[in-house]
Specification:
This is PIG-L family deacetylase. About 40% of the residues lie in helices and about 15% in strands. It is α/β, with parallel strands linked by helices and about 260 residues long.
């Protein structure tokens, strides 16, 4: 199968499928910037409302022992500055412990709560499947985010009898149209976004996370190379850059309740 054949399998059509509001889930501050900041910058420039939910505080991150006492506040400040660079100001935290995240009902209920509150057209999340080609993409917290979000969007999100206390509080069941997954196995990726015009915004956002990058030059070179490789797999012109996603249609015209 060629890259173009793979891309054609995406159920999402940018020309016809509306995106007005997006909710992005990540395990740690900086995950979203590596995975999707270019796409997010393009969305916000087009008037799309984008919110972030970071499940942990990133308290186990960093390299400098001198930062330990202030690492949570430091990483929050980094994430908020990075988000503003790509047009995002609405950031939520679940305050789970970094390195200990699990797809528990406690976490899933909070995911359902936030999605029902924001009611987005797209939920963007880390992928629940391990990437064996680059294991660094598959931190256990990343996989836990993907599993918790995937379990939450079906069936709990659209079932008024799942977590009934949410319905009782006024957060009505909601049918999510689209789930976009990032940082997963390449063989699952079926949708590519040309972010050639957003490369510098993405890199600027990543550079804000200075507490996490002991080798800035190597980091930037790796990110640029990865985006160019994505573009090549998508069949885009040489020199272009892209971000890659596994897009799943959750509810659409052909969806039948319960199926």
């Amino acid at each position: 199968m060629t890259a173009l054949d793979q891309q054609a399998q995406s159920p999402f059509n940018p020309a016809t499928d509306r995106v007005g509001r997006v909710l992005c889930f990540a395990a740690h501050p900086d995950d979203i910037d590596f995975g999707a900041a270019g796409t997010i910058a393009a969305w916000t420039a087009a008037g799309v409302e984008v919110s972030y939910c970071i499940m942990t505080d990133g308290d186990a991150g960093g390299f400098d022992p001198a930062h330990r006492a202030d690492i949570i506040a430091l990483r929050d400040a980094e994430q908020r500055r990075a988000a503003k660079l790509v047009g995002v100001t609405d950031i939520h935290y679940l305050h789970q412990r970094d390195g200990y995240l699990e797809p528990s009902h406690e976490v899933m209920k909070e995911v359902v709560r936030l999605i029902r509150k924001i009611r987005p057209d797209v939920v963007l999340s880390m992928h629940p499947e391990r990437n064996w080609r680059r294991i660094q993409k598959s931190h256990p917290d990343h996989l836990a985010v993907g599993e918790a979000v995937t379990r939450a969007v079906y069936p709990a999100l659209e079932n008024p009898f799942a977590y009934p206390e949410l319905t009782e509080s006024g957060l009505e069941a909601f049918k999510l149209p689209w789930l976009w997954l990032y940082a997963g196995p390449e063989e699952r990726e079926n949708h590519f976004v040309d972010v050639t015009g957003q490369v510098e915004a993405k890199l600027a956002a990543i550079h804000v996370h200075v507490s996490q990058h002991p080798d800035v030059e190597a980091m930037e070179a790796t990110v640029r190379h990865g985006m160019r490789a994505n573009a090549a797999r998508a069949g885009l012109p040489e020199g272009n850059s892209a971000e890659a996603f596994h897009v799943v249609a959750i509810n659409g015209p052909g969806t039948i309740a319960g199926f």
